[in-house]
Amino acid sequence: MKTSKLIKRAEEFFSAEKKQQREEIDSIKEILKKLKKKQRTLKEKLEKEKDNDDRKQLQKELRTLFAQRKKGLKVLKKIK
Questions:
Q1: Contact 42, 62 (CB under 8 A)
Q2: How many Cα atoms within 13 Å fall on the side-chain side of residue 12?
Q3: Looking at the 3D structure of the chain, how many domains does it have?
């Protein structure tokens, strides 16, 4: 194979890899936005809730969401 063909194939490979990485980053960002929105709604529910058992359940869900978002942000930083 000629050098120009090898270079062209290498460029195609790297551009495909970047495209895949960009798509992965975009999907993670979208998921993080949804998680943040859900976290906000749960916080609002928690503020309005009077029942202790329900409050504990909401707090547990909030902690879980926070942990998921934190993991997602770590993955996003690692990819970038």
A1: yes
A2: 6
A3: 1
